[in-house]
Write a structure and sequence with these properties.
The chain is α/β, with parallel strands linked by helices and 377 residues long. The protein has 2 domains: 2-102 and 356-374, ornithine cyclodeaminase, domain 1; 111-352, Rossmann fold (3-Layer(aba) Sandwich), CATH 3.40.50.720. The protein has 12 helices and 15 strands. A hairpin with a 6-residue loop joins β3 and β4. α3 crosses α4 and α9 packs antiparallel against α10.
Length: 377
């Protein structure tokens, strides 16, 4: 068995990770012809909720994702985790991979797929600005991956304090930490990223939030908010297309997007994309509160229905180009009749699919080479 630590993933694996290989891995997850993803098991401890999530795709080996989510007053902040790979031939554990950044990586990978379907191909140059709500690793990885693909993306606005009040000192500190994390990731990128500027503002400064939203083409929401992060009116009169990747709300009680915006997106052909209709119908408060479960199931389209076919081996380097060709053809049934119109706001809602964890872990293993420590097991 080989063990790869969180630090080794960050310092050795991420620099080897191309966008095409990441998107290929996530396509394998979304398009897997057979899969097993049983309900997660949870254990409650005095300070943590421990989650155990086994899953398997059509590619060899099974993966169990294990995380500890802080829940008590004395818990250490942050979510620690590990992904365990079981070999099909021996039945034994073959790899143990630190997964603290892998959830953010695979979620952002799914979001980038949706963004490419909307703005990829010949429309790539339209993307110049983005707004991200939240300052955690999900937010950082969303911005990082989109910077790598959209070379014209140069202005970033980070909105903090959406679900709690923050002081000016905290805003400054959060902005500095976000910038530092993003700069470190950009240094690891195999692809060169363009120069960018970033500012951090508190959610209470609504006029600045409104201006940032109206001038941005991409919006990322990565918070546990139970109330919409902005009113629909901020975007309803915009003249340019926008795409929202909403990944923060994962419970029926949570909600990041205004109901009118969700309903408007649901009326556009493939304007409301999701990672899993079944999962979103039970977990995505943003959608269920606006649409109800039945209408949600009727009006959403799963991302897998818009992706080009994927081959398991030997074609990792080609998948980004295939996805761009799909975007040029308007997603083969995606936002076809709406593309080219101004004022369209599309949404991709993700609550996270366990199969994504399986394939991103296998990708880390394929890229590992001699990284990690061999342990007799």
């Amino acid at each position: 068995m080989r063990i790869i630590s969180d630090t080794e993933v960050t310092t050795h694996i991420l620099p080897r990770l191309t966008l095409s290989s990441l998107l290929h891995s996530q396509a394998l997850a979304f398009l897997s012809p057979t899969s097993q993803c049983p309900a997660r098991i949870s254990l409650s401890t005095p300070n943590y909720t421990q989650l155990f999530m086994p899953a398997r795709t059509s590619t060899p080996s099974s993966v169990i994702k294990i995380v500890s989510v802080p829940s008590g007053a004395n818990a250490v902040s942050g979510i620690s985790g590990v992904n365990i790979v079981f070999d099909d031939e021996t039945g034994k554990v073959s790899w143990t991979v630190g997964s603290s950044c892998l959830t953010a990586l695979r979620t952002a990978g799914g979001s980038l797929m949706s963004s490419i379907l909307v703005f990829g191909g010949s429309d790539k140059g339209e993307v110049r600005e983005c707004v991200v709500f939240g300052d955690g690793m999900q937010s950082v990885f969303h911005v990082w991956l989109h910077l790598r693909y959209f070379a014209g993306l140069q202005r970033i606005t980070v909105v903090v304090g959406s679900h709690r009040t923050v002081s000016p000192e905290q805003v400054e500190e959060k902005g500095a930490q976000f910038r530092s994390h993003l700069e470190d990731l950009c240094k690891t990128s195999p692809e060169a990223t363009a120069s960018w500027t970033m500012r951090c503002i508190p959610a209470q400064q609504q006029e600045e939030v409104k201006v940032a939203l109206q001038s941005s083409q991409l919006i990322f929401t990565c918070t546990p908010s139970t109330q919409p992060l902005f009113p629909h009116e901020y975007l309803s009169d915009c003249k340019q297309r926008k795409h929202i990747c909403a990944v923060g709300s994962y419970k029926p009680s949570m909600c990041e997007l205004p109901a009118d915006l969700v309903r408007s997106a649901s009326e556009i052909r493939a304007g409301l994309m999701v990672d899993s209709i079944e999962a979103c119908a039970s977990e995505a408060g943003c959608l269920t509160q606006a649409l109800g479960q039945e209408r949600l199931k009727e009006s959403c389209v799963e991302l897998s229905k818009l992706l080009p076919p994927v081959e398991e081996e030997g074609h990792e380097s080609d998948y980004l180009a295939k996805l761009e060709r799909q975007a040029s053809e308007f997603g083969g049934g995606g936002v076809a009749e709406e593309k080219g119109k101004g004022g369209i706001v599309s949404v991709f809602k993700s609550v996270g699919v366990g199969l994504q964890d399986v394939e991103v872990t296998k990708l880390v293993v394929r890229l590992a080479g001699d990284v990690g420590t061999e342990v007799a097991f």
